[in-house]
Amino acid sequence: MSEWRLYEVFVRSKHGLNHKHVGSVHAADNEMAMENARELYTRRNEGVSIWVVPSETITASASDEKEILFDPSEDKVYRHASFYKLPDEVGHM
Amino acid sequence: MYAQMVDTGTKRLKTLEEMSPEERDFQEKVDAETKIEAKNWMPDGYRKTLVRQISQHAHSEIVGMLPEGNWVTRAPTLKRKLQLMAKIQDEAGHGLYLYSAMETLGADRDEEIQKLHDGKAKYSSIFNYPTLNWADMGAVGWLVDGAAIVNQVVLQRTSYGPYSRAMVRICKEESFHQRQGYQILLDMMREGTQEQKDMVQDAINRLWWPALMMFGPHDDESPNSQQSMVWKIKRKSNDELRQMFIDQTIPQLEFLGCTVPDPDLKWNEESGHYDFGEINWKEFYDVLKGDGPCNHERISTRRKAIDEGAWVREAAVAYAAKQKQRAAKAA
């Protein structure tokens, strides 16, 4: 099975929701990846749509890049609505 | 438990002071219940232990299809046959979730399966017992899947993210297995002939002790448990899990109107648990070593499946290559 490609599987559980990563499958081609994903991840109405993506085509952030990537957003509190205090009289905004 | 006696390669636990900075970071993360993910740094022993445990768990799911496959063509009704096939397909699915989780650690699926076929990798001792009558399908679902659930519910909190997520998925599906098993027995006890009721008792008599063995040796005989608990791969000890299983199973057994083959089993008012007799550990180690009633048959069935399916896998690859070539030509 090593010569079969690894695919990552994403399932949309309901109309209106995003596809979410659920796991992976091995397959000889895209079509088989779809069939295998269907059998493996949606045997009980878990989804209405499936994406299969060859794992090697995914670019992922590395865990040691966490600070470089995500720390800058931590010191920008003014990007959150809660930063702006309004008088009660203004009501809901 | 679906993984028994998983070797951690550890003789003695390290203190935080003895650890390298990376190791200490890792342990502190584990202690804080932060899940470890595939790309995070982890001690070599942690990685190896997980590969051993998850592959053993996966092999158990796959080999576990065989005792039940024995009854697909002989299920008493079409309804029971469909239920049994759905359960068996789930087991295949569980094996695949687990192999995928194992692969995130850099292990190769084919290599690990080869180890199973060479007798170098273990799978749960329980699947080396035969399924002799239809009631065994009920008893396996109720007791064997029941024991697996006790173990797996706790493993949902295991420290390695991909393993934990596979467990969540598996647990969702597993309670169908246990209920369908119990219902088989309930039907036989309520509506069956005397002969059918005897079958139920016979199945329980044969499978009770092997089900208790699934949890592995006593805590003090289980040197690897300690390390696995510190790494939070394991969350509860073998004896704790076994006791939980017995406590929840005996009332169900009494409702069926059956007994277990243990004269020492009785409710202990003081401890609030059931007391029970000693497991035949020689039998456990013999089965684990390969001398159970069905070890040889199980592995040769697996080997045969892989060997005789080789042409299908090769054809799939050839077909994919041809389709790709055609698409390239057409473009």
UniProtKB/TrEMBL annotation, chain A:
Pfam families: PaaB (PF06243)
Tree of life domain: Bacteria
Name this polypeptide is given: 1,2-phenylacetyl-CoA epoxidase subunit B
Organism: Marinobacter salexigens
Gene that encodes the chain: paaB
